[in-house]
Amino acid sequence: MSTQQTKVEPSYLEHKGKYKGIFSWIFSTDHKRIGILYLYSILTFFVIGATVGLLMKFELIAPGKTIMTAQTYNAFFTLHGIVMIFAVVIPGLPAVFGNFMLPLMIGAKDVAFPRLNLLSWYFYVTGVLLVIISQFFGEGAPDTGWTFYAPYSFRTAGNMLPAVFGAFVLGFSSILTGLNFLVTIHRLRAPGMTWLKMPLFPWTLYATGWVQLLATPIIGITLLMIVAERIFNIGFFDPTLGGDPILYQHLFWTYSHPAVYIMILPAMGAISEIIPTFSHKTVFGYKFIVGSSLAIAIVGYFVWGHHMFTSGMSGVALYVFSLLTFLVAIPSAIKVFNWISTLHKGSIDLQTPLYWAVAFIFVFMIGGFSGLVLGSLAADIHLHNTHFVLAHFHFIVFGGTGYAFFGAMHYWYPKITGKMYDSRWANIGLLLFLTGFVTLYGMMFYLGYKGMPRRYYDYDEIFHSANIISTMGSWIMYSGLAIIIINLFASLKNGIKAPSDPWGGKTLEWTVPSPPPAENFEEIPIVTKGPYNYK
Amino acid sequence: MSAIETHRDNLTSKFGMWLFLFTEMLLFGGLFIVYTIYRYKNATAFHLAAEELSVAVGTFNTIILLVSSATVAMSITAIQKHNKKIAVVLLCITILLGLVFLVNKYFEWGEHLREHIFPGSNELALRGHGDVMFYGLYYFMTGLHALHIIVGLVLLVIITISVTKEKINSEDFVFLENGGLYWHLVDLIWIFLFPLFYLIT
Predict the structure, then answer these.
(1) B18 in contact with A, Cβ within 8 Å
(2) Which of A112, A179, A234 has the CB atom closest to B20's CB atom?
(3) What DSSP character marks residue A452?
(4) DSSP 3-state of A386
(5) Shortest distance, CA A404 to any CA of chain B (angstroms)
(6) For residue B8, what pLDDT is reported?
(7) Which of B23, B25, B118 is most worth mutating to test chain A (most A CB atoms within 10 A of its CB)?
(8) What value does the mean pLDDT take over residues A333-355?
(9) Lesser CB count within 10 Å: N end or C end of chain B?
(10) How much is the pLDDT for B57?
């Protein structure tokens, strides 16, 4: 081992805890090990969800039945939605990189409640297993879509109970993670790290924590009401018993719209870390990035109605929701300007994470602008529930969170694993992924504009050619994905040893060895400067 | 791991507990919204249905919970004053009161069930949509609240055992404080449920 240091702490990967083998992982309360647990579980479910998506795209390569029946298709888009939303993008960045990096970045030895942290992983796994069980037992797979709209969700013969309850349990896991991070950020920042000296990724986790905490209970109770509807036939959302199905939609989107910001805020945070590091320059407008994160978290609560423009609302409500939707775009735009200005006149180091960050900005802006199209009332009447909406939210959710996730993966990979990856294959993977992505979802804008509805396994002949291109895009994207993931795994074995700061980052996680020692810091650092001090 | 396990910060624990209580309030908050909307839609039916509930039983249960909140708060003071015995007695009284609350609830629900008033019953369906909603919400909200009482009781039992084993003592009683906070929340939610279902007629 190293001879320069007087004392070499074993890394978290080698640290001998109370347990051995797999138990040293699944019983570990070390935030870094829990982050890795999340990483592997989320990656597994992501591959499942992506494969289901690939099959769905293959079904759409030609009109009529290609490889699956209508009912299978219904089950597939439901599974794809639940897994990707609740099990992949909502926990994605906070649970993996938040867990691993937050204590390192704020100079703490762990999160505030390490055991609660482990518990929330168990909730997570239980929730996903319930959702997956619902596919194989009972009267048939759930077929409502991930939104569980009433009254169909309690009339369908599909096996809804485990799926809905699984989503409830996943929500609980999300609340506990958010709570843990909030308390950690309040209580465990290193001495000298005032609020405005905190790096931006922790800041976005902070904003996300509040959204997780204050919005998730609403979906929790709504899902419990669906459970009660199915078991006791109460009638909350059943029009034949005096219930109101539109009320269900309101309650559902009161959570599920803020949830979009649970997905995107940490993604923005990761991008805000990558860009200054590879520009070797202080981030432009730090306070504006912080402020816009908080603004997104707050305004994001009041825009849920834009999912329901065609469901039946008063005219005034429509105008207000439309206006607020336009307003919530402003803080996102501020961030984009900040990132671009950070790059401006920086000494740019072209590395894989920066490519991901730039690709993120590209797809995120397409997703954002198409969101404004949908936010305007007249256009939405035409485009609602078409492939246009599908394209929009894949650009913003998959394009936003997905790209930031892989960007963060390539950025922090040396720190997490202690190895460098092969950046040539990583770049080829990204190029294929981006090409496939734009082909796949770009065509959907056209299809939706032409009137192709979502969630149908069949379509009119006029949509055929565009669907062929879109499906081919899915193959390109999937192969890009395969290259990226295989490269990262191969580099675990073949990669060269990573130094503690391979990119020249200035935040605290780069001051500890790669991989970090089990206790993170031998001595808690004392912070005197801002996070991106390149002077 | 050693640093983590020896590290103890009471303020952090309480902060976490308060945040958790926020989420609990929002959980019921969703139901209060649903209640408000259906009450607005079915004002007369809610008014008439609420008159059928026994104000006496409701009041009795309210008093029980208020007293139990007081006893759990007193047990914290007792612990602080090194008086383990009184703390245990007060905690036992709290648990007992919680059980009495549940027994009352059992008889109350039993009465309705005998009259065939429960979700999905013909009797209730014949009475119209307003009654379906009122009793649907009644069972769901008081049921969820009763579930919280049960969780709270389990917590209090664990706490009482910890006090007798002196794991909770005058030096380290944050677990008792957090349990007390949870019990106060359960009480607080009842303070809202009581007027909504029993008093507003």
Answers:
(1) no
(2) A179
(3) P
(4) strand
(5) 29
(6) 67
(7) B23
(8) 95
(9) C
(10) 93
Residue A388 near residue A448 (C-beta atoms within 8 A): yes
Residue from A18, A225, A231, A236 whose CB has the most chain B CBs within 10 Å, to mutate = A236
Q: What is the pLDDT of residues A395-445, one digit of tens each?
A: 999 999 999 999 999 999 999 999 999 999 999 999 999 999 999 999 999
CA atoms within 13 A on the CB side of A19: 11
Closest CA to A178 of A208, A204, A199: A208
Quick check: A233 and B144 CB within 8 A? no
**Is some CB atom of chain B closer than 8 A to the CB atom of A109?**
yes
Q: Mean per-residue pLDDT for A491-502?
A: 94
Query: Looking at domain B14-199, does it have CATH number 1.20.140.160?
Result: no
Task: Pick left, alpha or beta for residue A238 (phi over 0 → left; psi -120 to 50 → alpha; otherwise beta).
Answer: beta
Tokens matching residue B178? 């957090």
CA–CA separation, A423 vs A294, rounded Å? 35
Cβ(A535)–Cβ(A32) below 8 Å: no
* Residues of chain A neighbouring B132 (CB-CB closer than 8 A): 234-235, 241-242
The tokens 């204050």 sit on which residue? A214
Of the candidates A247, A227, A212, the residue with the CA atom closest to the CA atom of residue A159: A227
DSSP letter assigned to residue A4: S
B56 contact A CB<8A: no
A236 to B3: CB separation less than 8 angstroms, yes or no? no
In whole angstroms, give the CA distance from residue A338 to residue A62: 44
Look at A236 and B34 and tell me if their CB atoms are within 8 Å: yes
**CA distance linking residue A273 with residue A282, whole number of Å:** 10
Residue A7, domain member (yes or no): no
d(CA B133, CA B130): 5
Chain B interface, best mutation among A179, A213, A256, by max B CB count within 10 A:
A179
Chain B residues within an 8 Å CB radius of A18? 1
Is B119's CB within 8 Å of A242's CB? no
Its ipTM equals 0.91
Q: Would you say residue B198 has pLDDT above 70? A: yes
CB within 8 Å of A289: residues ≥ 6 apart: A200, A203, A272, A283, A334, A335, A338
Distance CA A387, CA A310 (A): 16
Residues 410-449 of A with CB under 8 A from B: none
The SS3 assignment for A497 reads: strand
Asked whether residue A461 is domain-assigned, the answer is yes
Q: Which residues of A touch B31 (CB under 8 A)?
A: 221
Q: Does the beta-carbon distance from B15 to A186 stay under 8 Å?
A: yes
Q: What is the CATH number of the domain that holds A80?
A: 1.20.210.10
Tell me the chain A residues in contact with residue B9 when contact means C-beta distances shorter than 8 Å: 112, 187
**pLDDT value of residue A419:** 95
Q: Given CB atoms, is B27 within the 8 Å cutoff of chain A?
A: yes
Report the mean per-residue pLDDT for chain B: 92
Q: What is the pLDDT of residue A253?
A: 95
Nearest CA to A233 out of B16, B84, B122 is that of B122
Residue A526 lies in a domain: no
What CA dihedral angle connects A60, A64, A70 and A72, to 10 degrees? -50
Q: What's the Rg (C-alpha) of chain B? A: 20
What pLDDT is stored for residue A22 in this prediction? 87
Q: Is A242 near chain B, with CB under 8 Å?
A: yes
Is B44 in the A-facing interface, judged by CB distances under 8 Å?
Answer: no
Structural domain count of chain A: 1
In this structure, how many other beta carbons lie within 10 angstroms of the beta carbon of residue B104?
Answer: 16
Question: Coil, strand or helix: which one is A7?
Answer: coil
Question: Domain range spanning residue A74?
Answer: 27-511
Mean model confidence pLDDT for chain A = 93
